[in-house]
Every structure is written in C-alpha cells, then in structure tokens.
Amino acid sequence: MFNPTGGAxxxxxxxxxxxxxxxxxxxxPLQIFExxxxxxxxxxxxxxSGFGVVWMRRGAEIAGEGISTPxxxxxxxxxxxxxxxxxxxxxxxxxxxxxxxxxxxxxWREPDGLVMASVELAEPLTPTPLLERWESLTAVLKxxxxxxxxxxxxxxxxxxxxxxxxxxxxxxxxFDESIKYELLGMTSIETLVAELDLLLNQVSGExxx
Length: 209
Prior knowledge:
Blueprint: E1 10-18, E2 27-32, H1 35-47, E3 51-58, E4 71-86, E5 92-109, E6 115-121, H2 135-144, H3 148-151, H4 162-172, H5 177-184, H6 189-208
Helix pairs in contact: 2-4, 4-6
C-alpha cells in the first residue's frame, strides 16, 4: 500500500501535509516529532517505500477526536527518504526527495490521526533536453549551488534534463508557496519554464530598482 509504482490507477498512500510545497526532483529537510509520523517514517524506511506530500492551503495539520482533515491541495508529490539523522535537539531529521506528482481523491484520517488518501499517480517524468533558450535557468541554479546552505544538501543535478533543472530551481527559490503549488500543476515543460523565467525576470527587475 505504501510503495506505488506509478501509472493511471488509484492507490492508497499516507499523506504528510505541509505548509510548503515539495516538487519533483526537489529536496526538503524535515524534523519529525509527532508519534504518528515517527511511526510512518519507521515503516517507510523499513519497507523502502514513501509517502505523499500535499500542500495545506491554510490552517494547521492538527489531529484529534472530532478534528476534520486539513484543507489540502488537489495534487501533491510522492516523496522518498534520501537521508536521515538524529538531530542535536533529539528529534529525527530526514531529507526527502520529490518523485511523481499525484492527484488527490478521497481523504480520511486513521485512528492514530495519520491522514490517508486515495490518489492517482502520474507517470514518472520523462527527461527532456534543456534547450539553448532555457540556459539562463542553468546559470541561476549553478549560482545557487555555490550557497553554503545548498552545498550542505549535496545535490546531484542532471543539467541535461529541463524538468530537473526547473523543479530544482523552483524548490530552492523563496517564492510564495501558492506560486510553487500552481507551477506544480503544470504538465508542459515549455509552460513551466516560461512561467519560471517570467518570475525570475520580475525578481531581477525588483532588485534593479
């Protein structure tokens, strides 16, 4: 149940609702402290599986008797754990990487408060050559890789894949989460790159003023 292989069929997966958006190819560190998520991570690591990350439009992910499911986005990203460690504060720290996108169907809570969903997984992204007119994205991403925070993430980026360059760049940049969520919903690499390029031009214009 926790190890979907992709495709157009519906499958049930556990969800990790977050106030931030995880993108395919994106890396994200998390601190785990609630028991239901500690149990989920232990099961995920034991089974070498994953879970869904879905953006919360508003509110908090609070579980309890009589508490409804959080206000979630209509789609999210299937995540796998790529690193873990015991943090200095005693909490479990993990790093997750985004994989396939999925559309959310029915959502419910388990007795322990864990949010589950029936989802339809998209096919894994097919690597797409990075066109010459998109190379400005590569320059920005390589510049970000020089930042100490990004270097600590030990990213291994395929600069020949436009999807990976665009999504990795979008994950790292401090855009509003609603913007990242909107771009996650795009299925055309040309549209995604055009929107990302427009956002970068807007930021450059603001910096120049």
